[in-house]
């Protein structure tokens, strides 16, 4: 029996990578210093796993931005618009890499970034590969072999982790018509062979190919591609031990395909799909080992060791000890680094902390499972086993978790609670009368840049260096500046800027009962963007209003409309570490009722437009089509519960970003938000096609500039995007806004972009009047 890991967090225990990348982008760090930071993180991760006792340690799980972008650079899938950067000798490989991720606007060049979207049903974002008919590939970057060599210098022979060829192609987009991206298998396969040749020559023994699409619905062509690719790799490299890793779902109808592929080991996710174990064990040939994904790589609860040991026992009884590998369910990229860093009992109570395991602790759980399963236990193992049992019992009986009033309120939810008083056409007339908005009304998604100064105020307040009154005064001054600036440039619907908020989920979680927090529980969302998900450990309710104070204050400063800004129940659920002792739908309804209370209080305070952000609706969609309707039923209903307690005159907005909507457009319409704002600029308004083909009835704000890139689009570029939008959506339904919130941007670029945005909207208004 072997232990292995599929991947480790790459941001560093103290977010060293985030800080290094941002300093490099701002010109305050050399490329040598950035590379050194990356090397230090990788070496720390390798040594930590080696010292713990993991036998197959991953390499190439580190990335400066995104592992799929890494692969695009590795195989030379570099869009032609970056040629001038690639051939400029003053640029290094990382400059090209970051330009692909973030766009490029200097030295007379103005190049858009590659598209970004969600990694399956997680809050991680990947950079979408771009594919063209008859595209040629070549080995462009040696990152994979360089990392393997770096670990070997430390005496560690790693298991390189590579996105599988078929999954890589399926993750990308055809950027021209007339071909299927899977037609590129034959062009890409020689590059994968070159990669493996280099690794074999360096002494690699195991190779892990991540093929998550084997756990999804795939067509016959994709199935044939899997056979073609792995048959070719086995023929070329009979001596290499190739492992295929699947995760986030079960193999189901792809079971026979996956178990018949000519590889040495198959990894299955027994956290997401425990019921697949017996079917897999019945199907595996004698030549195939099975990696049991038993430790939850996506949540922070301690493993139920007794249940996991029962899985191992069943597997051993069927195929023997030697063909079993024990591992987390997926890469630990989605877990915080180290629970030992949580030393503040006020932030995370000891009672809740004993129920948790972060990446470092999950590695220990993998080893403990092997020791227990093989009967080779030392004194520390015995202590850990007892601690696990004690923690599990504590969590079952804790008075912290259950609130009968909350449970009763959820049970009393009726169909009427999820319906507005009148349908949208009636509401629209009432809202036009009250709001008096022009054609192409302008707004932003909510947040404005949180400068170092604003963040320092929050830090000083938390440390007690400034009083609550002083902190409140500083935030009010910053809010008023934001309101006055928006008035000055002529934005139609203002926002207060959210300077009091740390994160769009954490801020609400801090004010809701049933949530707990960490000080260092960071995970990567995209690039240098890290989030610190709250922990939902118990029943959720709202003790007091959460946003009314700041929204009402901002509205008191102006006669213009100011939006109230909230995060929706599904997004709060998705972007938290959620309790696993009750259905997610129940927890979501608890959150929905708390948000509903906030919405009605905002309306009473005179806020006429209220935005309930739901960027995670699409993200939460199950990976198998057969499971969609159950999820969509409770998720859409939870949003409607949160938004339906107001009068017709109150306009409800929602926001979604980096999602494909074609297959759930009816469900988006069922949400019945008066206005939806969506990300559209990176896809050049492609996402609007779904709304146009469906004849979407409500109002819509397609984002006209990409806030995840530092480049500032011109007024003309935004007009062009709005003209595209106007060609498929009636002008009277269109709003004008950025793709997403502006919290992570700088004020100089934000001001230039928003001024251009308002000018673009005014120009279209003049044309249409």
Describe it for me?
The chain is α/β, with parallel strands linked by helices. It has two domains: 2-79 and 114-397, TIM Barrel, CATH 3.20.20.210; 416-453 and 480-768, TIM Barrel. The chain contains 28 helices and 25 strands. The strands form seven sheets. The protein has an eight-stranded parallel β-sheet with strand order 1-14-13-12-11-10-8-2. β12 (265-269), α11 (277-283) and β13 form a beta-alpha-beta unit. α16 (404-411) packs across α23, α23 packs parallel to α24 (628-643) and α27 packs across α28 (747-768). The model has no long low-confidence stretch (mean pLDDT 94).
Question: What structural keywords apply?
Answer:
769 residues, alpha/beta, TIM Barrel, 2 domains, eight-stranded parallel beta sheet, six-stranded parallel beta sheet
Question: Could you write a compact summary of the structure shown?
Answer:
The chain is of the alpha/beta class and 769 residues long.
Write the layout of secondary structure elements.
Blueprint: E1 2-3, H1 16-25, H2 31-52, E2 58-59, H3 67-74, H4 83-87, H5 93-102, E3 104-106, E4 109-111, E5 116-118, E6 125-127, E7 130-131, H6 143-153, E8 159-163, H7 165-171, E9 173-174, H8 185-201, E10 206-210, H9 220-236, E11 241-245, H10 255-260, E12 265-269, H11 277-283, E13 289-295, H12 305-319, E14 324-328, H13 350-353, H14 359-374, H15 379-397, H16 404-411, H17 424-435, H18 452-463, H19 468-489, E15 493-494, H20 506-509, E16 513-516, E17 523-526, E18 529-531, E19 535-541, H21 548-556, E20 561-567, H22 569-574, E21 577-578, H23 584-604, E22 609-613, H24 628-643, E23 651-656, H25 665-670, E24 675-678, H26 688-694, E25 699-702, H27 715-728, H28 747-768
Parallel strand pairs: 1-14, 2-8, 7-9, 8-10, 10-11, 11-12, 12-13, 13-14, 15-20, 19-21, 20-22, 22-23, 23-24, 24-25
Antiparallel strand pairs: 3-4, 5-6, 16-19, 17-18
Helix pairs in contact: 1-2, 11-12, 12-14, 16-23, 18-19, 23-24, 27-28
């Amino acid at each position: 029996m072997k232990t292995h890991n599929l991947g480790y967090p790459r941001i560093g225990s103290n977010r060293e990578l985030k800080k290094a990348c941002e300093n490099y982008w701002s010109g305050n760090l050399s490329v040598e210093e950035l590379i050194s930071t990356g090397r230090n993180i990788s070496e720390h991760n390798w040594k930590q796993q080696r010292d713990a006792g993991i036998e197959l340690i991953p390499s190439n799980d580190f990335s400066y931005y995104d592992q799929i972008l890494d692969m695009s650079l590795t195989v030379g899938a570099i869009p032609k618009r970056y040629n001038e950067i690639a051939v400029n000798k003053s640029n290094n490989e990382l400059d090209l890499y970051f330009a692909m991720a973030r766009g490029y606007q200097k030295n007379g060049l103005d190049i858009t970034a590659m598209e970004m979207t969600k990694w399956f049903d997680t809050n991680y974002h990947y950079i979408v590969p771009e594919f063209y008919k008859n595209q040629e590939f070549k080995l462009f970057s040696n990152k994979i072999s360089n990392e393997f060599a770096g670990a070997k210098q430390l005496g560690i022979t790693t298991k390189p982790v590579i996105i599988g060829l078929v999954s890589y192609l399926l993750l990308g987009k055809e950027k021209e018509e007339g071909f299927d991206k899977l037609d590129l298998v034959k062009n890409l396969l020689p590059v994968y062979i070159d990669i493996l040749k280099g690794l074999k020559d360096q002494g690699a023994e195991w190779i892990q190919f991540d093929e998550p699409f084997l756990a999804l619905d795939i067509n016959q062509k994709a199935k044939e591609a899997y056979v073609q690719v792995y048959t070719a790799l086995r023929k070329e490299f009979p001596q290499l031990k190739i492992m295929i890793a699947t995760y986030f779902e079960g193999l189901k109808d792809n079971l026979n395909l996956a178990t018949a592929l000519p590889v040495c080991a198959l990894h299955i996710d027994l956290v997401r799909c425990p019921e697949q174990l017996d079917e897999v064990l019945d199907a595996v040939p004698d030549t195939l080992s099975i990696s049991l994904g038993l430790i939850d790589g996506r949540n922070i609860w301690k493993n139920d060791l007794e249940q996991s040991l029962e899985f191992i026992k069943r597997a051993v009884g069927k195929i023997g000890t030697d063909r079993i590998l024990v591992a987390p369910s997926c890469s630990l990229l989605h877990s915080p680094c180290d629970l030992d860093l949580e030393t503040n009992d006020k932030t995370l109570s000891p009672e809740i902390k004993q129920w948790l395991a972060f990446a470092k602790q999950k590695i220990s759980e993998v080893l403990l499972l092997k020791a227990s399963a093989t009967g080779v236990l030392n004194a520390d193992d015995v202590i850990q086993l007892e601690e696990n049992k004690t923690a599990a019992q504590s969590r079952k009986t804790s008075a912290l978790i259950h609130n009968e009033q909350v449970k009763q309120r959820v049970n009393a939810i009726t169909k009427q609670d999820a319906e507005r008083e009148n349908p949208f056409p009636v509401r629209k007339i009432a809202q036009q009368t009250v709001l008096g908005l022009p054609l192409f009304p302008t707004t932003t998604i909510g947040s404005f840049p949180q400068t170092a100064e604003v963040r320092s105020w929050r830090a000083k307040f938390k440390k007690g260096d400034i009083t609550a009154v002083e902190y409140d005064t500083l935030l009010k001054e910053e809010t008023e500046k934001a309101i006055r600036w928006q008035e000055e440039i002529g934005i139609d619907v203002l926002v207060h800027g959210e300077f009091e908020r740390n994160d769009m989920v954490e801020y609400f979680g801090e004010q809701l009962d049933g949530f707990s927090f960490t000080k260092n529980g960071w995970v990567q969302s995209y690039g240098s963007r890290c989030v610190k998900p709250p922990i939902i450990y118990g029943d959720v309710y709202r003790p007091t209003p959460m946003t009314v104070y700041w929204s009402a204050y901002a509205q008191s400063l102006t006669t213009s409309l100011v939006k109230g800004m909230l995060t929706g129940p599904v997004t709060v659920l998705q972007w938290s570490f959620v309790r696993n002792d009750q259905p997610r739908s129940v927890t979501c309804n608890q959150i929905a009722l708390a948000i509903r209370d906030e919405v009605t209080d905002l309306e009473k305070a005179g806020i006429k437009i209220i935005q309930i952000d739901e960027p995670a609706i699409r993200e939460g969609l199950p990976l198998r089509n057969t499971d969609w309707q159950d999820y969509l039923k409770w998720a859409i209903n939870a949003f409607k519960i949160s938004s339906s307690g107001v009068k017709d005159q109150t306009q409800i907005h929602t926001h979604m970003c980096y999602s494909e909507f074609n297959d759930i457009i009816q469900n988006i319409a069922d949400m019945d938000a008066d206005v939806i704002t969506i990300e559209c600029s990176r896809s050049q308004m492609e996402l609007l096609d779904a709304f146009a083909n469906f004849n979407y009835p409500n109002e819509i704000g397609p984002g006209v500039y990409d806030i995840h890139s530092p480049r500032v689009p011109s007024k003309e570029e935004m007009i062009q995007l709005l003209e595209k939008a106007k060609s498929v959506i009636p002008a009277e339904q269109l709003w004008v806004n950025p793709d997403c919130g502006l919290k992570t941007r700088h004020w100089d670029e934000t001001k230039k972009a928003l001024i251009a945005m308002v000018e673009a909207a005014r120009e279209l208004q003049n044309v249409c009047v």
